[in-house]
Amino acid sequence: MAYESTGTDALAKALLNRLEQEALAFEPAVIVGQEELARVRLARYELLAAFLMCPSAAIAKRIRGLARYECTAFTKQKRVIRASRISRARAETERSCSEA
Known about the structure:
92% of the residues lie in helices and 0% in strands. The protein has 100 residues and is mainly α.
């Protein structure tokens, strides 16, 4: 019987962890990071379409320049996600310590 309880507890913890990870996608700071990344990518796609219709050196240069902004937006998004996970882990640790 103890084996079933341990297995059930492990399953419950795994489900809770998965739900928390999914909830991370809806945190406001993460959404802002995703919006910024989407804006840069949209601009790049628009420039690529314009370049395919009428190739020019100026458009090619602008496309290359967008890579810097995309990397910055992606890095910012990763930092926000990492900070959110750290703060959530600290809160969980404090909560478990206060329960003990």
